[in-house]
Write a structure and sequence with these properties.
about 290 residues, alpha/beta, Rossmann fold, 2 domains, six-stranded mixed beta sheet, 8 helices, elongated, binds guanosine-5'-triphosphate, binds magnesium ion, endoplasmic reticulum, SRP_receptor_beta_su, membrane
Length: about 290
Amino acid sequence: MATFTEIVEAIMTPSIPLVIIGIIIILGGPLIFHLVLASSSSYTVPPSVLLLGPDNSGKTSLMTLFERGANPSKTHTSQIAHSVELNASTDSATKASFRNFDDATGTHTKFLLVDTPGHGKLRNVAMGKLARTEKVKAVVFMVDAAALGEQETIAPTAAYLYDVLLFLQKRASSKGKDKASIPVLIAANKMDLFTALPATMVKSHLEMELSRIRASKSKGLLDSGVGIDDVGSEEQDGWLGEYGSEKFTFQQMNEFDIDIDVLAGSVSTEEPGADKWWWWIAQRVVG
Ligand SMILES: Nc1nc2c(ncn2[C@@H]2O[C@H](COP(=O)(O)OP(=O)(O)OP(=O)(O)O)[C@@H](O)[C@H]2O)c(=O)[nH]1
Ligand SMILES: [Mg+2]
């Protein structure tokens, strides 16, 4: 039987197998530790839904409504992103309402609702959130339907939406198979105001303005005398929707596996309220 000193001696004597075991422990330990942490964090970080849209459209108001079940009396223009954890359910009992999400009945899916600042100077905050898309399940793009009839509102609103859609399109074109596509809800808010455009008009106004932006972006290209068939794939990649089409429609985004819905509602009043939006979000989060 080996004595204690013999064992110690064997361990202390450098030998190839021992060195290999040592290297495995030193390199493998942290690696395993990392894998364990990484896999567990994917369970603890819930999916998120991004609230985008220009300033004054009602994003913070909507988030507060979902969080507290009550409409905030006053909001300030947001300067930072802010998220709250909510529970969504698609059970018929709790169907279409965020007011009873605390009910213990049925199954719930946790998700993060991320509010972003809408001001043009802080747009990078929102786009930064969008760029880290691993956990983004859906995008809610909020617009002020009551002010959308005015040129000074529709122009910046559509310009922002253009950037968001082009980002999603590029992401879809270059994505690996494991990345799910991100659906977009255009939430036409402030339907309680008499100047509010109905959802169909919000849709057509935005499509018209997006067509205009797209045309002006490609104008330099066309002016230079290059035919539409002569341009390289780089230019095609920068084109929103169906390449070469005259008019942009949201339906063209289906080509990139991006679904866009336009739903009308209001944060401030019970009717039409925000239930439709909540139901849309719940289906995307749970599904
Ligand atoms: N009439 C009416 N007013 C609303 C509605 N929703 C929000 N508002 C008002 O619109 C204003 C702007 O709302 P916010 O929620 O602060 O807008 P926001 O999108 O967070 O704006 P930023 O933080 O600047 O990006 C507030 O005065 C709200 O009270 C609505 O459904 N109807
Ligand atoms: Mg805000």
